[in-house]
Amino acid sequence: MAQHQEMDKHAYVQDYYPDDFSLCYGCGRLNDKGLQIKTRWNGDETLTEYMPRPEHTAIPGFVYGGLAASLIDCHSTGTASLALYRRDGHALGDDVPVPRCVTASLKTEFLKPTPLGPMMTIRGHITEVGKRKVIVQTELIVDGVVCVRGEVIAVMAPASMTGGHQ
Amino acid sequence: MAQHQEMDKHAYVQDYYPDDFSLCYGCGRLNDKGLQIKTRWNGDETLTEYMPRPEHTAIPGFVYGGLAASLIDCHSTGTASLALYRRDGHALGDDVPVPRCVTASLKTEFLKPTPLGPMMTIRGHITEVGKRKVIVQTELIVDGVVCVRGEVIAVMAPASMTGGHQ
Fold it and tell me: What is the pTM of this model?
């Protein structure tokens, strides 16, 4: 199992979402106008790195909060997919579809202004894995400083959103 | 005063931000790649309407959560500016700069999937106006249904973000 899970260390969950679920503005690999964020395991935590675009400004020099919220949102639904998949004994690359999760609740606390320019790192710490629900605590870090803290409750996408298949 | 305040009924706060503070991806009138949302008084509440772009999808047919969070975020900082300005006896158009606020905390609760297509309406209800802090409760409504509920604590932009001037 350890070797099996080792396989997904450098694989990104968004590359394994079914095509129909890969159009999200935040994390869909098939949305060419979107952010296309990528999330992977990093030990027992999860990691997303994102380089903001110059237009992602708030007040000049700082990242606008909506981007931080968007990154934390999609990072956390990706983390939830990874957590449910691993809980069920799978690693990315297995011949079993990755579950697609959506956000039930998102909280973001802006601790410090987020400088616009350097790479942004989002770390996810999984605090609860239920049958269909995952809770993720996140930190958004720039230059070693935690600028935004987030908490997301993600759930498997309901049938009303997926046309019945998951 | 009533007539004075009546003036800003159809004016949008973002049109009165100083140019330096009008580059925000969410609400800056000078950010031509951004969302350029517009927020105004509607009685004692505030109102933003936004037509999502086709690429703002989550799972096909639904709005991605990061957009909802972004709209609630900028709607609420705009609401905070309006609230502080009115508290000080001003209406948009007065020869006094509008205060620029930033988000300290943002909570969003996704009650129902948000359909992608129709106009999105965000309503803000102001529950607290402090010296430099405003708390705004928001509802994001599509086709008469409250899809997302938000709470934002907004504060006047700190000097560290504005280069000392406000």
Answer: 0.94
